Amino acid sequence: xxxxxxxxxxxxxxxxxxxxxxxxxxxxxxxxxxxxxxxxxxxxxxxxxxxxxxxxxxxxxxxxxxxxxxxxxxxxxxxxxxxxxxxxxxxxxxxxxxxxxxxxxxxxxxxxxxxxxxxxxxxxxxxxxxxxxxxxxxxxxxxxxxxxxxxxxxxxxxxxxxxxxxxxxxxxxxxxxxxxxxxxxxxxxxxxxxxxxxxxxxxxxxxxxxxxxxxxxxxxxxxxxxxxxxxxxxxxxxxxxxxxxxxxxxxxxxxxxxxxxxxxxxxxxxxxxxxxxxxxxxxxxxxxxxxxxxxxxxxxxxxxxxxxxxxxxxxxxxxxxxxxxxxxxxxxxxxxxxxxxxxxxxxxxxxxxxxxxxx
Length: 359
Description:
Elements: E1 6-10, H1 11-24, E2 29-33, H2 35-39, H3 43-49, E3 55-58, H4 61-69, E4 76-78, H5 87-93, E5 97-100, H6 103-111, E6 118-123, H7 135-146, E7 151-157, H8 173-184, E8 191-194, H9 196-201, E9 209-210, E10 235-247, E11 252-253, E12 259-260, E13 265-270, E14 287-290, E15 293-298, E16 306-309, E17 321-325, H10 331-337, H11 342-347, E18 354-358
Parallel strand pairs: 1-18, 2-3, 2-9, 3-4, 4-5, 5-6, 6-7, 7-8, 8-9
Antiparallel strand pairs: 1-10, 10-13, 10-17, 11-12, 13-16, 14-15, 14-17, 15-16
């Protein structure tokens, strides 16, 4: 028999969020980003949820091949590109497109002989300083790739560091756009700039392709919650209370005795801990719903359990329903309280947590 903790994944929510992404940039084609096992939702589930996407994007070559095996026939893009020469025959065989972000990759491409057409996404480092060619080196990289006989198309792409904080003085969004436009001026080929934050807040920047990720799962890249942007939570994590304790004034709760009751308290013990993917560093006060009523965690999260304050839920008892995040409690609200982001909570869902699909 399974423990009561359960993750519910809504395929219809994935479909809805994809439609929202497309509505923000109706002129663009959409890459549905499903890296990290579909942000923890499952690769195959995400593939079905994003069936209407124009292509799927991820970073894992083996998962890209798996998408072909699952029947995906539309474009697939590897956002980090290939990692060594042995990857290239496999990508060519399965018609998988890939990013090129450094001279070493171009050198491997120049040595690779194939009759299969290759589709390259040439990445510019417009200021984020992770992957890509600097603007002043981009044109030379483009010209090298253009000379490779097997390359049929070159899409130009960059990634925004602060689309959710466009005025950030360290790297304003407008400066990244300026650098990209200057570095690609006059070069033929599609452009791809917008991630989730840019799609939601700066749809005017969409060019030929957008690459939404977190928004497709009902998370938000900046302030606000899914509902603020018309998005729906695709993952709901729920469990049950498995024990109740009456804690007198002055007694402590949990490891390290970090929370001490300043009043008589009823405390519920929930079957969910950091081994399930709940953040261990979540402090007392992190929001939780018990029987639909918002309350909060108390004490340190342990491996298999966490404790919640039942003061405002007097009817709660063993077996009461607990929502850790999801339809009624936005994952971003929980993440903010825990000092992290919704992306991390989604991706951290542990394999031992049972998953069911819902509409």
